[in-house]
Structures are given as C-alpha cells and as structure tokens.
Design a protein that fits this description.
single chain; binds zinc ion; 5 domains; DHBP synthase; 22 helices; binds fe (iii) ion
Length: about 750
C-alpha cells in the first residue's frame, strides 16, 4: 500500500510520528518527505495497514494539518523493517512552510530545569514548536534554507536531529548553548554589557525602569515595565506622535488575569500556539500606568511565544510593555543595522541575538466578538497558513491588496496564501516590503502569477506595483467587493449574498469615495444595492487626521452652526472648510461609514484631531453605555440603491448634546441607530435580490458593539450572517478577496 499525505506535514515531526506508528503496528516499508508532502509505503496484513492508515490522520502531531490521505495498492516488495528515507528533491513543490509556533510544554520544562543542558537557553525548540516562517529563506524546508544555515550543530544536537525517535528529529532550528545563537545585551553605542547572564541583566534593566529594544522572532520590540508611568510616558514621547495603545507581555494566564477579565474564548486565544495579542476588558484596578493605553477600555495582552520572551517575562515578574520597534507609523524594524539606527534614540539598551530574521512579522492582534475570534491583524503565528478558495483557479494568481494595512496574497488551484501584515504602503520602505514579500512567497509556494488582481484606485502604490508587472493579465477589483468576496470565500461560500461593507474609504465604481455600502453579489460580480447618504470629504487625507472637518461637512450640509465642542477650532478654519463644502472645491463626495463615525465623535467632542485613522471612532465606541439605548432615527429612502440618511440621527445628537445628555448615552444610541438602519437596508436588499445570506465586513466592523447589534438584528430577520474570522475585516482581507474574485471571474469565463 502506498499513501500520499497532503497538508502541512513537513517540519512538524510527521515522519518520526509515522515511524513510531509503523513500529507499533509492526508494519514494514518507508516514509519520505518530497516536495508535495509525505509519501508512505506500508506492507503488512490488510486490516493492520488499514488501521495504520486511519491513525496517519487521526493521531497526527500537534503542528501537522493533514488535509488528506490518499492510498493506492502497489505490489509488496517484501523488504523487512521500516525506514525514514532522506528528502527527495525535484518535482512540483506544494509542501507548505509552516507557521511559527509558541514554545511547547516539553521545551518549557527543559528551559526551567537546572539539570537540562538547555536550562535557560533562549533559543531551544523542537519539532513541536519554535520558529518556522520567520527563519525560512527557501524550499524545501530544511536547515540550509533557514537563517540557521550558519550554525553548525554540535554532536549532541546532531544526534538528536538524526534520531527518528527523538523529539528533535529534523527540527531544523535545533540548537543549544554550545552551538546555537547567542543573546547579548548591548549599550546604544554597540558595546556589550558585561554580564554572565544577559537575560537576567535585561530583566533587571526593565525592573530598573530602562527602555530596551529587544530582538524577538519577527522583529524588534520596545519594552519597559508597564506599571511605571515615568518610563511608559518616556517611551511614548520618544516614539513620537503615537497614541496607539501599547501591548503587554505577561508570564502566564494568572498574570494576565490581574490585568484583564478573560472569557473562555479569550483565554483559549491567549494560550493558543499562535499567541496573538488579545484585546480584553481591562480591570479597573489593573496595575498599569495611564500612558499604556490612554482612554482605552481594553488592554492588549499576550503570553510569551519564544523561550526568550518566557525568560524575560518570568525573570521580570511584572507586566511588560512590548510594542513594535519603530517610530510612529514606520514598519517594525527587523534588520540589525537598521534597528540600531532607528531605535537608538528610543532605547536605553538593546537585547540582541545572532539568528537573522528572514521575514519581518508583526504580532497578530485579535479580539473576541460573538464568542468568535475577530482578527485586527493577521501575522505572526498565522502566516503562511493557507486558506482554501471556493472556486479553484486554472492559473497562478497574485492579489496586491489595498494601501492601508496591506497584505498581499498568492494562489494556485484551490489554495491561497495570504501574506503577513505589510503595513500602510505610503512610502518606499513599505513598497519594498511588498515587493520582497511577493518574491519570497513566489519562491516558497512556487507560484508564478499569470493574473494580478488590484484595487480600482490608480494612486495606491500597490496598484502601481501591479501595473509594473510585465506579461500578466490585470484584474481590477472594486474595494468593497473585495471585502465581500474575502468574507464569503474564507467561509467556503460563493454567494450571492447581501453585504454591509463599512470602512474608511475605498474608490467606488462611479469614481466617488465609498465606505458605507450595501452590496449584493457573489465572488465574480456585485451590484450596489444601498449606501449611506453622500457628503463632501473636505481635504482628502486631511479629513482623516481632523475628524472635525467631517463634522463641519455634515453640519454645513444641514445648515447647522459651529457647535460648542468646536471652540478649539478657530471660526476661521471652520469657515474655510465650510466654504469648501458649499462650493465642492477641494472636496470629493463620500458615503464612508468610518467618516460618519468621525463626524459624530467630533461633534461630541471626543476628538477633533487624531494621530491614526479611526481613533475618534474607537474612543467613541469605548464610551458607549449600551444599557437602555433608544436607537437614533436614520432615514431609509427605499429607492434603488437604498439610501441610509443619518441627518435625523445627527439632529438628535445635537439636541441631546444641548440637553446635557452624557456622551455614553449618545454613543450607544448612535450605534443602535446605525445598526438598525443597516439591518433594514440589508433586509430590503435581500428581499429584492431573493438571497438569505448576509455578510458584515470592512474596518468599521472592528467595532464590537456595532457588529454585535447588526449581526443580531440580521439573524432575527432570518438571515444567515457571515463575519470575517480567519482574516481581518479591515483591509488586511482585501488581497485574499481580490484573488477570490479573479478566480471566480476566470471560472465564469
Ligand atoms: Zn518544543
Ligand atoms: Zn548543540
Ligand atoms: Fe476597506
């Protein structure tokens, strides 16, 4: 019997598992890795072989993901014993590279065991855990194709690596203090700090109130103790113009519970092998400095995912700020020289090591909504896991994504590989990240894109990159259609469905800026079935940084004067924007839901100016007291497309503000009103199109309250609701959506 095992089965201890299983069943034959996966030849009595084949899938090791076991009868060779045969090269490579995985229990036990030769070794790992994607440079996945290539294993490590029964059999990053990477604590000027235990010294530095730049798995972090306002405020100041909440690293679940409340699904995510940053409700008495997460009701908490982080968190014994090593909006640093240059003004000292990082990979971020994970950022721990495409493609595909929160996606057949988080592609550095990332993925998954899908927006650098590629067919995908398609496709659906796609901005098919859309369609095409009422977007990017401009736009349209919250905005500036709105000069029309949130948040005085997109809306959501909130009235104009007009709601906001109603109530009423009109518009569109499937996506649906209310409303109207789970609802899902659209259009001819 010969069996082909498909899926993620390389670099995860699958062959030794087969070997042990064969011993157990007394089966003869061999197992080998080739470039398609794992091939097994098994000889023995038919019923025994049958049972053996069942277990190949059922009992696979923790990091394996077996997609299928295909068996065929062959003539028995009669060779005795069972062997692991060396890797074969050549042929088509579809054997996937796996994700980085948090340190396993066995390795943690060794890390803490003074008698173990890897006691306190920050780079220990085994086939069940450790770095993968962040160190891989090529295929097949083997030590020479990783950033461990330069480290020669000592005899003890080599013996483990060669022994099929050892937990470190073919663990490519296998290492020990004698032969592997070393950690060093260095001053800003590069001078090494004299210490016999750099990890303990680093933990002491943190306790003493120093800011450290720490080279981790996918990049550099900036760290300091989280309970000391002086040092956290200093870090915030040195990072410049940065208001985003800082993430926290704690040693274990108990320590996390001192900071946040954890529901069961939240705890499951926190302790998962992906080890994302989990956004959870902050405890009122959490011992955390105010500057960690100003105005945020949630804290982002994560557990250690490498032995290095485990040692640091345990030795320090306090919660640590662990934020991206960058200044403001730049991408996280991962190259040693670059990190030194960019972070030396911020960090007091550097904790570094000599294992290169192949691919910059940010921490993944997730929150739980409706008991399910909702990803804000999908990167470390998730990349490069593949997603299935519901419609297979005959040709190789590339989706280049949007501009913000960019991730790209390559695909062939029915498999798609969404990339790690690239970031906001607004400059040469992030564009280079995109280019290099695509080249890397093309090699890893042997994809040579013949079709390149991109956004309609001609000025996105990602679009320009797509247009530069030669000899390919280009496919234009409307931004909000890509959101809809991505959500359908990740759930294995093709539509048709009605989708409420709410986000900041995306270019519409009619040349205006969309962002509050009710679409009806499937993977191949769509119709605009409804939208938020249009308003001028005064000053493009300026309107994003200054939410008061959106408030001015709405209020000018409604002939309302400057409200009291706007005193800090000089009448002169207000008049200038109002004039822009009245004449339409320097303004574009938009139906953006994100900008509507900005406008209302600004009217309530939450934020007149922001340091990152959506900040006013996030803080407005945080204020909401969803108790007994009577929804504000939105006007539903049942024309085609349906128009949802927020003017009555805005008038009610102004009236409530004038009556001294607290913003917590106004926010709750606004959320409830927008959810209600969204449900009504979706139901109307669904009836007109005769569909019973609904999709909610777009960055605005990172808003937990809005998502919960809208989904519940749609469900009670009898619609089945799909929400993004494996990819973020924000523009991180766009590239996968583009690829799904391209594949479906190709299949439709
Ligand atoms: Zn391990
Ligand atoms: Zn060694
Ligand atoms: Fe979007």
């Amino acid at each position: 019997m010969r069996a082909r095992v498909d899926g993620t089965v390389q670099g995860v201890g699958y062959r030794p598992f087969v070997y042990r299983l064969a011993q157990e069943f007394g089966i003869a034959g061999w197992v080998l890795n080739d470039e398609r996966g794992v091939l097994v030849e098994a000889e023995g009595p038919a019923d025994v072989v049958e049972a053996f084949l069942d277990r190949l899938r059922a009992d696979a090791p923790p990091l394996a993901d077996v997609r299928g076991v295909e068996a065929e009868d062959i003539d028995a060779l009669g060779d005795p014993g069972f062997q692991i045969v060396a890797s074969q090269r050549g042929g088509a490579a579809t054997a996937p590279v796996t994700v980085d995985s948090a340190t396993c229990e066995d390795c943690l036990a060794e890390l803490a065991d003074p008698a173990d030769r890897r006691h306190r070794y920050p780079f220990l790992n085994c086939t069940n855990c450790g770095p993968r994607f962040t160190i891989v440079t090529g295929i097949p996945y083997d030590r020479p194709a990783t950033t461990m290539a330069g480290f020669v294993m000592c005899d003890a490590c080599q013996a483990e690596y060669d022994d099929p029964l050892n937990r470190r059999f073919h663990a490519q990053p296998n290492a020990c203090p004698a032969c592997g990477p070393r950690v060093r604590l260095v001053e800003r000027d590069g001078l090494e700090v004299e210490t016999d235990d750099a990890m303990r010294a680093a933990a002491q530095d943190l306790l003493d109130g120093r800011i450290l730049a720490i080279k981790g798995l996918g990049g550099y972090h900036l760290a300091c103790r989280a309970d000391d306002e002086t040092v956290v405020a200093a870090l915030r100041a040195r990072k410049r113009r940065e208001d985003r909440p800082f993430a926290l690293l704690v040693a274990d679940v108990e320590a996390a519970r001192r900071l946040v409340t954890l529901s069961e699904p939240e705890q499951a995510l926190l302790t998962s092998r992906q080890r994302p940053i989990v956004l959870a409700r902050r405890l009122p008495d959490a011992p955390v400095a105010p500057s960690v997460a100003p105005r945020a009701p949630d804290l982002g908490v994560m557990l250690p995912y490498t032995p290095l982080h485990q040692l640091l968190a345990t030795d320090a014994g306090v919660a640590l700020v662990m934020t991206s090593g960058n200044v403001s909006d730049e991408p996280i640093a991962f190259d040693d020289g670059d990190a030194r240059e960019r972070l030396e003004q911020i960090a007091d000292r550097f904790l570094v090591h000599d294992r290169p990082i192949a691919t910059r990979t940010d921490d993944s971020v997730v929150r739980v909504v409706r008991e399910r994970p909702l990803l804000m950022r999908r990167s470390r721990g998730h990349t490069p896991a593949a997603l299935d495409l519901p419609v297979a493609s005959a040709r190789h595909l590339l989706g280049v994504g949007a501009e913000q929160k960019n991730a790209f996606c390559v695909a062939k057949g029915d498999r798609a590989w969404p990339s790690h988080h690239i970031g906001d592609i607004k400059n040469y550095e992030t564009l280079t990240s995109l280019r290099d990332g695509v080249t890397h993925f093309e090699a890893l998954f042997e994809v040579a894109p013949e079709v390149v899908a991109h956004d309609l927006h001609p000025d996105y650098l990602s679009t320009r990159y797509a247009l530069e590629r030669e000899g390919v067919e280009l496919v234009e995908v409307q931004h909000h259609h890509a959101h809809l398609a991505a959500t359908l496709a990740e759930h294995g659906e093709t539509g048709p469905a009605v989708g409420a796609i709410y986000d900041g901005t995306g270019l519409g098919s009619d040349g205006t800026i969309w962002g509050g859309e009710i679409l009806v369609g499937g993977l191949a095409d769509f119709e605009r079935a409804g939208r938020l009422a249009g308003v001028w977007l005064p000053g493009g990017e300026g309107a994003i940084r200054e939410p008061w401009r959106m408030a001015c736009s709405w209020l000018t349209q409604m002939r309302e004067p400057l409200p009291p919250a706007f005193e800090p905005i000089a009448q002169q500036r207000w008049n200038m924007v109002a004039r822009m709105v009245m004449t339409g000069v320097g303004a574009t029309s938009t139906s953006s839901a994100g900008r509507l949130f900005d406008a209302v948040a600004a009217m309530c005085g939450v934020r007149l100016e922001v340091s990152y997109e959506g900040q006013a809306a996030v803080e407005f959501e945080a204020l909401a007291d969803p108790g007994a909130a009577e929804p504000y009235e939105f006007q539903l104009q049942a024309i085609a497309p349906v128009v949802m007009n927020p003017q009555p709601a805005i008038r009610a906001v102004l009236a409530d503000l004038a009556a001294g109603v607290p913003v917590s109530t106004i926010s709750a009423r606004f959320h409830a009103g927008l959810a209600r009109v969204t449900v009504e518009a979706c139901v109307l569109a669904a009836e007109r199109a005769d569909v019973d499937l609904a999709v909610l996506s777009g960055g605005v649906f990172q808003n937990r309250l809005l998502l919960e209310l809208t989904a519940a409303g749609l469900e009670s109207a009898g619609l089945r609701v799909l929400v993004p789970e494996r990819l973020p609802p924000n523009d991180g899902q766009i590239a996968f959506g583009q690829v799904a659209v391209a594949a479906a259009r190709e299949a439709a001819g």
